[in-house]
Amino acid sequence: MPGGRAERSEARRYKALRPGDRVAVVAPSGPADPARLEEGCAVLRGLGLDVVLGQHALDRVNLGGPGPLRDGWQQLAGGDADRAADLASAWSDPRVSAVVCARGGYGATRVLDHLDWDALAAATGPDPKMLHGSSDITALHVAFGARLGVTTSFGPMPAGRIADLGPAATGADDALTRDGLLAALFGTGQDVLTGTHALAPGRAEGPLTGGTLTLLTALLGTPYAPPRAEGRIVFLEDVSEAPYRIDRMLVQLLQSAWLDGAAGVVLGSWERSGDPAELDAVFSARLGPLGVPVLAGVPAGHGPRQRTLELGAPAILDAGALTLRAPGGAR
């Protein structure tokens, strides 16, 4: 259904996993380190899941296409069509209960044109499977949410933070990340995320939308542009972006009218993105005029604390209480 939109109706929530369910790990973006990917897959197996790798999950090609790999060149986890084929195969396989992306990086937007959206819609069914990932995977969250009408899972990935959650992981950040992942995967209960400070007071309810800021702005003006945030709670985060670049991207969201009518804004982590005080000033200047609650410092996104968010599902933001209540329970 290229060009089709499902955002006007309530999204169908993905089905929670059970021990023994099969999870397909695919790599729609950058290449994963094989050893680190195996560590992350071992963590998922330790949760009782049957983990299988996509056919091209360990492929590696240059950004410009086939040819000898060169040190220092940006690379992708295989060609665009191959990465898309792994994703489509996993989504369409009735034996697979969840599709988990190995890592972010770059390349997910290039996959979108290679997907048969009619076939993916036909394979979705009344009880959608989970699509899980973060960062560059924001492009897939947006497209799957809009075109297939499903909720998706934004959180840590096997070749990233999940790889750190093995038996030796005993830190508070590890526990916070693991607990959030378990709640998202197995529907163990409502998750409450606590922010550090409010930039604008108030309370809001609505479906959760958003993701990594760079990807949201990259999709504007394309056939895969994110549906406008009207009536929704917007989650934003990013990594290694200077405050002036964040300001510029927020201006782009505002000038495109994407933020018009948003119910509230939740700001996650902004790892390696400059002075936190300067960032707060930017967020207050750009988002304050919206007149909606803005909660900052929510532990989701990049960084050591990575809670998992169900994009498209109803949520409650209480900036005064510094909380974002995300849905939970069996689905």
TrEMBL record:
Top-rank taxon, per record: Bacteria
One Pfam family cited in the UniProt record for this chain: Peptidase_S66C
LD-carboxypeptidase C-terminal domain: residues covered: 205-316
InterPro entries reported for this sequence: Carboxypeptidase_A_C_sf (IPR027461), Class_I_gatase-like (IPR029062), LdcA_N (IPR027478), Peptidase_S66_N (IPR040449), Peptidase_S66C (IPR040921), S66_fam (IPR003507)
CDD domains per UniProt: Peptidase_S66
Domain LD-carboxypeptidase N-terminal, first and last residues per copy: 23-154
Keyword presence, Protease: yes
Keyword Protease: yes
Keywords attached to this entry: Carboxypeptidase, Hydrolase, Protease, Serine protease
UniProt family annotation: Belongs to the peptidase S66 family.
Stated name of the protein: LD-carboxypeptidase
Organism: Actinomadura graeca
